[in-house]
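Before the break, one more example. Copy the sequence into your notebook; we will annotate it together after we see the structure.
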Amino acid sequence: MHINLGRTLSKVFTAAALTLILTTPGWTQAIEKVLYSFGGFTDGGNPQPGVVLDSKGNVFGTTLNGGDNFEGAVFEVTPNSDGSWTEQVIHSFSGFTGTGDGALPFGGLTLDAQGNLYGTTDAGGSDGGGTVFELSAGSNGVWTETILYSFAGGSDGFAPFAGVVFDSAGNLYGTTERGGTPGFGATAGFGTVFELSPGANGTWTKKTLHTFSGANDGAIPGSNLVVDSLGNLYGVAQSGGANDYGLLFQLAPQPDGSWVEHVIHPFSGGADGISCYGAAAVDKAGNVFVEAYYSVLEFSPSPSGGWTRKSLHSFTGGPDGAGAEGGLILDSSGNIYGITSSGGHHHGIVFELAHGSQGAFTEEILHDFEGGSDGDFPEFNYLTLDAKGNIYGTTPNGGASNSGVVFELIR
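Here is what the structure looks like once it is written out:
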């Protein structure tokens, strides 16, 4: 039974926002500020996996729960002149099946140059298999949702756990965790990679680029994709592969319009890593970086084909973090930023791998979550950098009501 507490109210998180100055030896000095602490009701609850920023410094993200219908929501957190922040739900999802516009927006958001937001819901839509949606802001500040695609299940795919990403031509790419073969359920396929191409009059055309077999090519692709400068796609499959620990893959476009999957690395567990839900990162040289639960790995392409694996950092499970399950981002200097779901004070950390001489990386802990008002257990989360190098993210738990927070780390 759902209890609707009425229309969403904007909420202001003022000077009570938590501030921690990290001065412990071996840490870099950082200031954490909680921009908003979710109540878990009409204002949303359990934000995941991260946020995006527009050109005005507004922060957007999704919550798995809460909203007017308690089926998940899209929120905006806006800075005020006095340093406080105001939260507002700009869309509440309406349900799982039938006329519902979706539920469970796990994958986060993507922002285009015009300020429109794009994302997915893991369930709901006209056929119950999940949706890809767009939110556009009107001149009156009201956001309008458009469903770009509803997944039908079976060979069409269903359960788009991850978000979507643009290429330079304006096409959207994403994954479904299931589907690809006839049927609808846990055994109906091992997932797909899809493309949505914009057409006339606001229409979008969907194309399946790859259907996973569950064998050596992988299964259950749950991570966000990343696109390189050549239009290749990179992602992580959660299982399958030669060792059944999942794999890192590339999908390469071909001249005839088809796509070919290349397995960059099948994980084998332990020190070699286990595939996780976080998105990979790609630098200008085409090197691919990924969190593999126990470590951060780099894969460099060889001119003769193939990839060279290098471990940049192995987590000890103690103060330096544990459970590297999220996505990675790079700054313009080649430094790597990520988040772990545990370690530190057992509630996760934000870390930087600073790029040094001769390709070496040194870990710096930017924030150690205490598990209370500053956030807790950032599983599958990713970070966002602004132009000043400040870091934004979310935790699905912790905060005043244990319904998650939006935070900023000021360097």
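Confidence is low (pLDDT under 50) at residues 1-26. The first strand starts at residue 11 and ends at 13. Try to locate both features in your own notes.
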